TrEMBL record, chain A:
Protein name per Swiss-Prot or TrEMBL: Ion-translocating oxidoreductase complex subunit C
A GO molecular function held by the record: electron transfer activity
Domain of life: Bacteria
Lineage: Bacteria, Pseudomonadati, Pseudomonadota, Gammaproteobacteria, Pseudomonadales
EC number from the UniProt entry: 7.-.-.-
Sorted UniProt keywords: 4Fe-4S, Cell inner membrane, Cell membrane, Electron transport, Iron, Iron-sulfur, Membrane, Metal-binding, Repeat, Translocase, Transport
Assembly mode: The complex is composed of six subunits: RnfA, RnfB, RnfC, RnfD, RnfE and RnfG.
Coiled-coil features, chain-numbered ranges: none
Record's function text: Part of a membrane-bound complex that couples electron transfer with translocation of ions across the membrane.
Residues annotated as binding [4Fe-4S] cluster 1: 398, 401, 404, 447
UniProtKB/TrEMBL annotation, chain B:
Protein name in the entry: Electron transport complex protein RnfD
Top-level division of the source organism's lineage: Bacteria
Lineage, broadest ranks: Bacteria, Pseudomonadati, Pseudomonadota, Gammaproteobacteria, Pseudomonadales
Keyword annotations: Electron transport, Flavoprotein, FMN, Membrane, Phosphoprotein, Translocase, Transmembrane, Transmembrane helix, Transport
Signal peptide region: none
GO biological process: electron transport chain; transmembrane transport
Keyword Phosphoprotein tagged: yes
GO annotation, cellular component aspect: plasma membrane
């Protein structure tokens, strides 16, 4: 594997000179590109209506907690931290309330108050109820005494810090960052994902615009600690302000951090595609970025890591986009465990709205319950989403129009995969590389017969899993 | 409201409606040249396709309203009407519709599952079984049906009047009306090209199929010693343009990859020319399309072997044993 990485490093030096945006290539160069595609380009994807201007104009606003009842989720998927507080116990902001073993990030109180109980609650982006610490906020929002800790000086210390500060991937997957850092065996590339290719979402955009210095500082720190030679930020070309802000911050900090444009094409932020666009390396299905010498982090994760490293501040809040049918769309910095119903009031959501979408319209899901709370991985709330999203229609029959093949960024054949999945033909599913599917939903949303392709593939993946 | 920025229609019904609309210019021009018989035949074909489709959906226990809402019967009826020769009796139209909808489409499991083009199956069956009754049909060179009134056409279609003999008829009316002009231009072809190009721009059909078809047929003509004018004129004969833009492009029965579609179009073009040159039938399009349809799975497999995804090795298709994986 190491020889492969070395080769790749040599190769990526070449396209450094031509950091041009894909759309700006002249016509004849695009013709040539069809014959000999660049190692950094990928085929397919969708041009989506952005709806970003709805919420990207105003700065990130803080949210006051007041005397609400918060439910701070302890669980994410199969990873569940053990609650270490008792009902009736008084906790302060930043105090540890859930402890995990070696690979479960710790959970912290996002405000001060009294623990009511440890029980089940709906997190905004999980279909089932999860374990949570239910906390009655006292409205003081009082911080715990934070020890004056310096930035970790060894990778091992950094891994421990990330775990104890509860850092997880904030892009949506929620993978513990500590495991990612521990798994990265001498990476030579640090790629920061600021693509935010989903429509409506602007939280990463605002974060990059407003907190560019902190992002650059953290990226620099990570690169020097882990011995990474090249750091790149990937940002979709529809966010010129974020790119300018980061470039200015990088210039001021005199670093070698590169700000690279990504094509404004969904799903440019999908991990294999982002890595390919930024480095030309191919992330084969079933392998981790660490295997090809890449450490890939989302910008929001990087920011949270920076707070943990330099300020010993655990992950207790996140930037969330409130958008769609509401009076005050924008981005808010919301404490974890904050109820969605309160956010509806803050945003002035249209009471006539039927559907609230959590996450983007492509990868997200409808709000499971009106009483759900914000978890670490909820990035966006789209109120009255039925006005913006295509209505669900009954599935028809596949007419083999092959639009799904055209748009699949992973060069799969969704129509054949779908028929194999319907037949439960597991051998064919494996031959057709179902494992490479990134579940971006491009095929489902382009299908004229409204076949539930992505949902079927998700289901088949769980069936195939041993 | 759709999220996707794309001119292509995003629902199956819109797609089918668009195909029907794009068929109209060619049909109108054809009716202008050939008279009311074209409209009557279209009416019968659409009606029968609708009837058979509804009946079959009901027999198969499907939701009839939902099944009809995709408008695939409309497209099938319109295409079949234009594929069948003019002035065929009604029972033959019914037989062709039956073969297309019942045997081909629903016999293979419904929309999207048939390997053969339904309209071509309908035409093929009556072309093989009733060859003597069909030919000579009115050709582009002699649009003598223009003089027939709707009443006369109906009598012919319902077989209540003796069959019109081409020679007698030509002697009686064509020459007097001065329409027996051997170079009557194939006006409807222009309509089909226009409709096909609109569909191609909207990405409803894949334009590489008609292009490959036209190119291969013209090139074969050139290679066998015809002049360039003859080769191009050859493309306007019979239903070539109609087939190229509206029948060969049926997504259900054409290959899935661009390379495969080019090969598919080329095969149809070549076979058509061979049948026209050496075969029994004046217009071999129907058999060329059916033969190429049968080759689609093989073409798809071939294309799958050539293509490889950008990550990792090529898909482990068991074509050459284990050797394929190591490449």
């Amino acid at each position: 594997m190491s020889s492969h990485s070395l080769q790749s490093v040599e190769r990526i030096q070449l396209p450094l000179r031509a950091q041009r945006q894909p759309q700006q290539k002249p016509f004849w160069r695009r013709l040539l590109a069809i014959a000999a595609p660049s190692p950094r380009s990928w085929h397919g994807g969708l041009k989506l209506r952005g709806y970003k201007q709805l919420s990207n104009a105003t700065p990130i606003a803080p949210v006051a907690v007041g005397h609400l009842q918060l439910a701070i989720p302890l669980q994410r998927g199969r990873r569940c931290a053990q609650a270490c507080v008792e009902p009736g116990q008084y906790v302060r902001k930043g105090e540890v309330i859930g402890i995990g073993d070696g690979n479960i990030p710790w959970v912290h109180a996002s405000t001060s108050g009294t623990v009511a109980q440890v029980g089940l609650a709906f997190a905004a982006d999980s279909a089932e109820q999860v374990m949570a610490v239910i906390l009655n906020a006292d409205g003081l929002d009082e911080w715990i005494e934070r020890p004056v800790l310096g930035a970790p000086q060894t990778p091992e210390a950094l891994v421990e810090r990330a775990l104890q500060m509860g850092i997880v991937g904030l892009g949506g997957a929620g993978f513990p960052t500590a495991l990612k850092l521990a798994g990265a065996q001498q990476p030579d590339l640090l790629l920061i994902n600021g693509a935010e290719c989903e429509p409506f979402l602007t939280c990463d955009d605002r974060l990059m615009r407003e907190r560019a210095e902190a992002l650059i500082e953290t990226a620099d720190y990570l690169a020097s600690l882990l011995g990474i030679s090249l750091t790149r930020f990937g940002i979709e070309t529809n966010k010129p302000e974020a790119m300018t802000a980061l470039r200015a911050a990088a210039r001021q900090a005199r670093t070698r951090v590169e700000i690279c444009p990504l094509p404004a094409r969904y799903p440019a932020g999908g991990q294999p595609l982002m890595i390919k666009s930024l480095s030309g390396r191919n992330l084969a299905p079933g392998t981790l970025p660490a295997d090809i010498g890449v450490l890939a982090l989302n910008v929001a994760t990087l920011y949270a890591l920076g707070r943990a490293v330099f300020h010993a501040e655990p992950l207790i809040s996140r930037v969330l986009t409130l958008t769609g049918g509401c009076e005050h769309p924008g981005n808010v910095e919301v404490p974890l465990g904050y109820p969605v119903s309160e956010l509806r009031k803050i945003a002035g959501a249209d009471p006539a709205g039927q559907l609230t979408q959590v996450g983007g319209p492509m990868m997200g899901q409808p709000l499971p319950d009106p009483a759900a709370v914000i978890s670490k991985t909820s990035s966006c709330l789209i109120f009255a989403a039925e006005r913006y999203l295509p209505a669900a229609e009954p599935a028809g029959s596949c007419i083999r129009c092959t639009r799904c093949v055209d748009v699949c960024p992973m060069s799969l054949r969704p129509l054949d995969l779908y028929s194999a999945a319907e037949r439960k033909d597991h051998a064919t599913l494996q031959t057709l590389r179902l494992d490479a599917c990134i579940e971006c939903g491009s095929c489902s949303s382009t299908c004229p017969s409204n076949l539930p392709l992505r949902e079927r593939f998700r289901q088949s993946k769980t069936e195939l899993r041993p | 409201m759709s999220l996707i920025h794309s001119p292509a229609p995003q629902r199956l019904r819109t797609l089918m409606l668009l195909v029907s609309l794009c068929l109209l210019p060619g049909t109108v021009l054809y009716a202008w040249q050939f008279g009311v018989v074209v409209w009557l035949q279209t009416f019968w074909c659409v009606l029968l396709a609708l009837g058979f489709e509804a009946g079959l959906l009901r027999l198969r226990g499907r939701n009839v309203r939902e099944g009809l809402s995709d408008l695939s019967w409309l497209v099938l009826g319109l295409i079949l009407a234009r594929a069948l020769p003019l002035l065929v009796p009604l029972w033959m139209i019914a037989l062709a519709s039956f073969a297309a909808v019942v045997l081909c489409k629903h016999g293979s499991g419904g929309l999207g599952r048939n390997r053969l083009n339904p309209a071509m199956v309908g035409l093929g069956i009556i072309a093989i079984c009733f060859y003597q009754l069909l030919y000579p049909a009115p050709s582009n060179h002699a649009p003598w049906t223009l003089a027939l009134s709707a009443e006369q056409v109906l009598l012919q279609q319902l077989q209540l009047a003796p069959r019109l003999a081409f020679d007698a008829f030509a002697g009686a009316t064509q020459l007097t009306l001065d329409q027996f002009n051997p170079i009557t231009p194939n006006l409807s072809g222009l309509g089909y090209i226009a409709g096909g190009l609109v569909l191609g721009v909207l990405k409803v059909i894949r334009i590489e199929i008609p292009l490959a078809m036209l190119a291969s047929a013209a090139l074969l003509c050139l290679a066998t010693g015809h002049s360039p004018q003859e080769s191009l004129y050859n493309l306007s004969l019979g239903g070539f343009l109609f087939t190229a833009f509206f029948i060969a492009t049926d997504p259900v029965t054409s290959p899935d990859t661009p390379a495969g579609r080019v090969l598919f179009g080329a095969i149809i073009g070549l076979l058509t020319e061979l049948i026209r040159e050496f075969g029994l039938y004046a217009d071999g399009l129907c058999f060329a399309v059916l033969a190429a349809n049968l080759l689609v799975p093989q073409i798809d497999r071939l294309a799958l072997c050539i293509q490889r995804p950008w990550y990792g090795e090529r898909p482990a298709l068991k074509l050459h044993g284990t050797g394929a994986v190591s490449g």
